Each structure stands twice: as C-alpha cells, then as structure tokens.
C-alpha cells in the first residue's frame, strides 16, 4: 500500500474510533444546561452517559459476530445509520427519560465504529505492525477530547445543547461518505460462521479461553476505564465545585487531552526497545502511584483547581501507553475470530466504564473524592490482574492459533 493509501486508511479508521468519544465529550459542557432545561439534576444527566456506555458494551458483542459473518462494511452502514437517527432523536428530546433512551440507541449504533476499526487493523496490517498502527489511531482518538468539549461548550452557549447532537449527525454523515469511497473492504464475509446463539457464544468462548486475550482484555477494560470516572465526574467538579464556565471547562478538558497525545507517540519509539508487556507493567505502576497521591492530596485538601488539573494530567499520561499495547496483545492470537475478539475487548472496557461512571454518580458528595478514588481503584485492580494473568500465560502452552507475543512487541 502507498503512503497516501496508508494515511487515508488510518484517518478513516481513526475517525471511526472517535464517534463514541465525540458523543461522550461534546455534550459534557452542556450538563448544567441539560439539567436546567429538562428540570432534573446533574446526577440524572450523568445517567445518560452511563446509558451510552452500557449501549456500547452490549452493542459491541452484537457487532463482533456480524462483522465476522457479513464482512466489515455492511454492519458499519447499518450501525452508523442507527446512530444518525438516534442523534436526531437526542436533539429533539424534551425529557431526561427520552434522552437516556436515545443515548442508549445512539450507542448501540455508533459502537460499530470501534469494533470495525480494530478488526480492520487486524485485517489490513501484519501482526508486527498492530501496536504501532493502534498507536496512530490513538493519536487521532486523543485529538477528539481536545476538540469535542471546546466545540460543545461554545455550541451550548451560542445555539443551545440540542445543537450538539445535530453536529454529531453531520459528522457521522461525512464519515459514512469516507467509508463508501475510500475504505478497503477488509476480510471477506465468512458464510461458514453461524449467527445462531449457541454458535455465537461458541465463538466468544473460543476467544475467552485464550489466557493472553483474557488477561490483556481485562487489564485494558479495567485500567483504561479510569478516564470514565474523570469524564463522568469532571463536569460537576469543575463547573459546580470550582465554578468554571462551559467554555472554560472545554479548554480544561482540551488541555488534559494533551496528556494522551505525547505518550501515544512515545509508545512507537518505546516499542523498538521494550516489549508491550514491559510497557504496560511499568505504566500501571506509575499510574497507581500517581493515583494514590491524588486521592490522599484531595482528602488532605492540598489541591486547588490548578493542582487537581496537574495531578489529572500526570495520571492520564499513562492511558496513551496502556491502551494500544494491551489491545495489540489481546488481538494478536486471532485471525478468524478477530471481530469477536475486538467486540469482547471493547465490551469489557465499556462495561467497566459504565460501572465506573455509575459509581461516581452514586458516590456523588459535592467533592472530587468520588472521581479520583474510583480512578485509582481501576488502576490497582488492573495491576493485580496483570500480575496474576502473566503468571498463567507463562506457565500454559498456547493453542496453535496464537501468534507470538514477542512479535507484537517488535
């Protein structure tokens, strides 16, 4: 493939993965306005975020088998069409209950982009390049939190929060055009795969019984769900506790998104000297230490607005390293079941993300403690799972379908 083709494919796959981040981040500055307009509380509005994460977790399990059975593009078209209609529904809603339902449907459609993008990486690139390609996708993904909340903040003030969902509908339309004209088909449909419930469950079981997949998918799911505590809690912490405006919140969110970009590109150079396993292990220890300091400092009252922003920045730097490496190690064992593997991996992450988001809402006490505590707990559990899982991997022979872990780290 030429450099131009390579760039276009990465760009389209990257935009596919940004559908859900845009859907999450863009409406965060509108939380207070949504709560006021729909006559409800911010805690209730946070449940629309939880509903979105639940929809992503469930939807990815559906799209995994569909992407393996029908190829990559047909499910993409269907899912994005559902997302488009649900976005319009969100813009027209007049109650928090309807908004929560529309957000659920929006997620069920939009999550196809996450699964399809990861499966297409496995289709179009050799195993030895997966981690580096995923790092590039993470770079595109990292830019969205810099843009989305800022656009959402200004759109909320200028046009009202309903306009946010119309903007999302327009963006999705442009992505659909790019998919149709410039994205390769990827793996051909596999008509031998059955969509009967038992057959689908059998495919998932085939994936789950791989110790390498289970270990790194759980690590990815739990450790990288920590930002969802930040995403869920930050509107209340910054706009209610520290009294920043919608526009200021957007700029704070954009600044913290920079924490994802540098490490993402650093990962490409680290992979030339270290394995993915080494990078993940070191990063999780670093984030755990930062998280514990952040929790203790918040409890002791050390941090004002800028101190908390600084600690969050240091913490979020690790996400750009853990995500692509754990994803690469999770997908490496599979060729035929790449779609199902990508679906399970994404479902783990969003499922834990929904739990994390709901936890912050339930623990809400008008302080930053619920947000920073849940973030830190995610990293502690991720590190424990990594230590246990690596022992199992190193002491158990892998099935023939497993590609070498060391190949991924090259």
TrEMBL record:
Q: Name one GO molecular function term.
A: sodium:proton antiporter activity
Subcellular location as annotated: Cell membrane
Q: Which GO terms describe its biological process?
A: xenobiotic detoxification by transmembrane export across the plasma membrane
InterPro entries per the UniProt record, alphabetical: Efflux_drug-R_Bcr/CmlA, MFS, MFS_dom, MFS_trans_sf
Q: Which UniProt keywords apply?
A: Cell membrane, Membrane, Transmembrane, Transmembrane helix, Transport
Establish whether keyword Lyase is in the entry. no
The Gene Ontology CC terms held by the record are:
plasma membrane
Transmembrane regions: 7-29, 49-67, 74-94, 100-121, 133-155, 161-183, 213-231, 251-271, 283-302, 368-388
Entry membrane topology: Multi-pass membrane protein
Q: Which Gene3D superfamilies match?
A: Multidrug resistance protein D
Does the keyword Lyase belong to this entry?
no
Domain Major facilitator superfamily (MFS) profile residue range list: 9-393
Q: Which family does it belong to?
A: Belongs to the major facilitator superfamily. Bcr/CmlA family.
Name of the featured protein: Multidrug effflux MFS transporter
From which source organism is this entry?
Spirosoma aureum
Lineage, top ranks? Bacteria, Pseudomonadati, Bacteroidota, Cytophagia, Cytophagales
